[in-house]
Amino acid sequence: MSQSSSESLEPDTEERAKPRWAERLQKFNRNGASKNEEAPASDDDLLTEYYKKFKGEACVDQYRSIPKFYTKPPKDDDVLQQKLREDARAAFLQRRSSELMDNDELQKLWSILEEKHTPPEAGDEQMISFSDFMKLQEQVSDKCRSFLTATVFAKLLRDDPFGRISVTQLFSYIMRKVWLQQTRIGLSLFDVQGLGYLKESDLENYILELIPTLPQLNCLEESFYSFYVCTAVRKFFFFLDPMRTGRIKIQDILACGFLDDLLELRDEELSKETQENNWFSAPSALKVYGQYLSLDTDHNGMLNKEELLKYGTGTLTEVFVDRVFQECLTYDGEVDYKTYLDFVLAMENRKEPQALQYLFRLVDIEGGYLSGFSLKYFFRGIQDQMKKHGHDPVKFEDVKDEIFDMVKPKDPLKITLQDLINSGQGETVISILIDLDGFWNYENREVLLAETPQV
Fold this sequence. Notes:
Elements: H1 2-17, H2 20-33, H3 43-55, H4 79-98, H5 103-115, E1 127-128, H6 130-135, H7 142-145, H8 150-156, E2 165-166, H9 167-188, E3 197-199, H10 200-210, H11 225-240, E4 247-249, H12 250-255, H13 258-263, H14 272-276, H15 282-295, H16 305-308, H17 318-327, H18 337-348, H19 353-363, H20 372-388, H21 396-407, H22 417-423, H23 426-434, H24 436-443, H25 445-451
Antiparallel strand pairs: 1-2, 3-4
Helix pairs in contact: 4-9, 10-11, 11-15, 11-18, 18-19, 23-24
């Protein structure tokens, strides 16, 4: 039995005792013997082969290398790269401009729409059905076909019982789209770095070149152009760049209504009332600049505290004007025309969030909120004004309670900028704290409302 046992264990012992080089030699021989035999393809091999056939190119492990998707703009001192970039952008924008419909093509489109409208008319408006709408693609130019899609038709569809859209609305939609694209290209020409935004100097150059194309500005003398450009640009930057980054996205310029107001000046028959309400009109710009000159009593081109106190009806409080000079950019204790424009835009648009942000920064002396202390600090200026005009000052506690009741802040002891905006009472609260006239208008609101004629 022992002999058989030793014999059965002997092969195992030899297998275990086999050196590693012998194992490798055996493996090599086995592989060599079968190298001419075709091994079955694995799933991965088959997938790779099919992918190559489908793409018609060698498969690359793209996940191992992320493609470059951003290239830094050339440095300012790299003149050759800067020039190459400018020329490439100009060629690109010129090509995009040539792809837009011109006036002749728009006029031809209008003639086709009038001819191919679908009866009956809806009042005085011509309508067009979807089937006739799609047939227009065969008669219009390639530039126009991108506007004649089912998506556009659905956007303009209203309550017509026959499922039609207005021909006038369709044409206005196309004209608006073409105008936006033309304006975007025009603005992009002044985007020196090609990053999609305009700096203050870029927008100034755009408006300066725009002035000769606006008939309503023909009355301006050339010597006033720089002041007009400054006046116009400040409105864009005040409302579209409240964080004072020094640049505005071109998309934001197109999305706001300021360009519409500016280009409205192309209308030679613009009414006097419309011009007075348009910040960009010649009468409005001359009025703002004239007020600045009238405040500048020492004729040094700047405004000091005493001069700014006379702004409007002269009822701003001294403590508020002191804060203006503490928070805003000054030159030897005086403000220039640009700073004055920001001040005017804030005072004339107190309902707007950007104006409230500007004014809140002036009345914020505690770091992000108004407490009872802040309200008392500024209302004391109103009380001083009342004494100066021979009136008994109103008790602060009554005013404070009314302010908190109006705003209803999240924190019952603190009013934040967001609280003012959310309440819709920001204009009233700020006026109560900085302007005696604003306070009197609030105190006598019921009387003023009763005297207002009912329409």
